[in-house]
Amino acid sequence: MVYSDPPWVFKGRALYQLQLVKTEEAKKYIPSAFRIVSLFGYTLGGFYLARYSDSPVGAFEELVALAGIVWNPPLSCAWAARVYVNNSEARAHGRKHCGLPSRLASFAEVSTGASERRRRRTPPSWWHQGEADAGSASDASPKIVLHNNERRSWLQPWKGSSEALQAPVCSMDLPPGAGKDWAGPRIRMQLPSFSGAIAECPQLLQYACQLCTNVRPVPAAHVMADHSSSQEALGGILGGRPVLTLAFDDMEMMVSKPVVLKIHREQEAEQQTSQHALAWAMQN
C-alpha cells in the first residue's frame, strides 16, 4: 500500500497528553531560528499516541513526542521532537512529504504480573479498548514498551544496513479503556503543527490535522523514559509533568498537504533561517 494524493485519512483512536516541558530541554529538539512559547521556564509538550485501524498504509501504531509550542505569527503550533511508527512506509512518507523526524519503532506489551483477582477488578487498558477478548487476556493492563528500531544506515551511514539501534525509548502505563456508558461528546477539531528542518525537508512546513472524534478526559498515562544524554533519549520530553490527558475514540483524522512557510522574525533572523535549518538538518 502507498500514500495517494492528499488529504490523507486515518481512522482509529488516540491518547493526547499535554505535559510541562522545560524550555531548555525543548530547545534541544527545536531549531534555534524558531521562537518557543514559554512561561516561567516551561513550554507545553507531551505526546500523541495512536492506534490506527485504517490508513493509507493499513493498521499501524504511532507515538509523536511533542517538544513544545512554537510561535510563528500569526500561528502557534506544536513541534514534534520525534515521531515513532511501526510501519516503514509511514516513516518514509513522514520524513519526505511532511518533514517529520520519523523513526521506525516497535511497540511491545510487557505483562505487569497482576494477580487474577486484580485483573478481574481492573478494566482493560486503553491499549486493548474495544477488543473482544481484552477481558480474558492474560494481562488486560500491560505495560507498553517503545523501542527505536531505526536502521543504523539511516542515522550512521558508516554502519551496516542490517544493524538496528533497538534502543529503549520509554515504557507507558496507560489509562483504562472506555466503558459502555459514556463515550464523550463527538466534536470536530483541528490540531495545527509545524515541521521541517530535517535532511529530507529543510524548509519550515505547516500542516493541519482535522479530527472528528468522541473526546473524553482520562487519567494521565504514567511514562517512564530513558534519561541518558543521547538526543535519541526523550526523558526530558516524555517525562514531563502531565497537565491534561484526552482520549479520542472512534476517530477519523484528515491530514492536509503541508505548505511551506516563511519564518516571521526580525530581518536578521530571517536572513539566517536557511543556515539554521541546514545545520539542524545535518543533525537529524
TrEMBL record:
Transmembrane segments: none
Protein name in UniProt: Protein NEOXANTHIN-DEFICIENT 1
InterPro entries: ADC_dom_sf (IPR023375), NDX1-like (IPR039343)
Disordered, as annotated region: 111-142
Ranges of Low complexity composition bias in the record: 132-141
Gene3D superfamilies in UniProt: Acetoacetate decarboxylase-like
Domain of life per record: Eukaryota
